[in-house]
């Protein structure tokens, strides 16, 4: 028998190792770091997790994660611009917010349609989106979905469900800082198809 | 160590852990074959592993019954051509779903592979695509052992005036041969015989015929699963767009 960490610490390591990006070895390192910085990091982290664990919930309107039934974005009257940006999940919403370029509201679908996984429209928040377009008098729906087969299938499906509303989607092509030599054929094809006059 | 190399079309992609992916590829010499792609969840590999993409694969495993690993090299990126095209995108989904549902694993179908590759290469030509897809469904049925016999009437043997098809045997029947049984037979649209203008009504009837044999003959032989909804979405679009 070896004298390793105590049972409680092992349990913490096991839990940490379940987090994305962490394996048993990195979880062990993280736990050791937390213990060494107990006052400055571990206890505040535990309190923060306790607080978020008891208050975090999905916004009833858009599907964003917040600490109240209606999230700060939906609750903000300044963001009622008639535009709604549709994203796959909350991480995408947060990415859009980080960019700080969109001042309308969002709608989180919770995934994409998938022929092989049998995920249909009723499994996503598409009916709620169609409802919101009417009740919030939306004039433009911006589809910020992945440039994947499933993402674009979902985009076309939503566009079909919204006749009479302007439906746009994000452009696809060369990323900022991208060099053509390092791009895959598909991205170059998409970029060429979406070329514009200067 | 067992190893082979082939070229194929990606049918599906699933994340496997944080960095890898399990893909299914339809190859000429090895049929529908699955394998792990190490690093397949990376941003670099994501465009290569989209369904419909043409790739060169090398499969390795210690034993034949193992899942094994794929090394993948891109050959042709079809998904980027179809992403903006509603009809082609629906077609790609329908093809991938039908192949995944119907093809037994690791069973080579080189003729169907060639037809599938040719069809996918037409994906950005919306005027040719619907008819080519219809004939691909007929070829899929034939490859799976449920060929339609439209060469002559099953009752009279005549080769002209074929107007119906037997829902049980898939054989053509002439109006004369059908007689009082006509209302129990499926109408045979000229487009399935290579005639006519492939208008929306004809196409709808033709997809009803292939759909009947896919759902009543092909899928029950594979465990009675329902027809993938992706096929119906494509048929709705074709019949609407035409």
Task: Describe the structure concisely for a colleague.
The complex is a heterodimer of chains A (about 200) and B (about 240). Chain A is α/β, with parallel strands linked by helices and about 200 residues long.
Question: Can you walk me through this structure?
Answer:
The complex is a heterodimer of chains A (198) and B (242). The model of chain A has no long low-confidence stretch (mean pLDDT 92). Chain A is α/β, with parallel strands linked by helices. In chain A, helix 1 (7-16) crosses helix 2. Chain A is globular and about 65 Å long. Chain A has two domains: 7-55, RecR Domain 1 (Helicase, Ruva Protein, domain 3, Orthogonal Bundle), CATH 1.10.8.420; 65-197, Dna Topoisomerase Vi A Subunit, Chain: A, domain 2. Chain A has helices spanning 7-16, 24-36, 38-55, 72-75, 90-99, 126-135, 149-161, 185-193, and strands spanning 57-58, 65-66, 83-87, 105-108, 140-144, 166-169. Chain A has eight helices and six strands. In chain A, 44% of the residues lie in helices and 11% in strands. Chain A has a four-stranded parallel β-sheet with strand order 4-3-5-6. In chain A, strands 1-2 form a two-stranded antiparallel sheet. In chain B, strand 4 and strand 5 form a beta hairpin. Chain B has a five-stranded antiparallel β-sheet. Chain B contains seven helices and eight strands. Chain B is 35% helix and 23% strand. The termini of chain B are far apart. Chain B is elongated and about 60 Å long. Chain B is of the alpha+beta class and 242 residues long. Chain B has helices at 79-82, 86-102, 110-121, 129-143, 175-178, 200-218, 229-241; strands spanning 2-16, 20-27, 31-37, 54-61, 69-76, 162-165, 172-174, 186-187. In chain B, helix 2 (86-102) packs antiparallel against helix 7 (229-241), helix 4 runs parallel beside helix 6 and helix 6 packs antiparallel against helix 7. The chains are: A alpha/beta (198), B alpha+beta (242). At the A-B interface, helix 7 and helix 8 of A face helix 1, helix 2 and helix 7 of B.
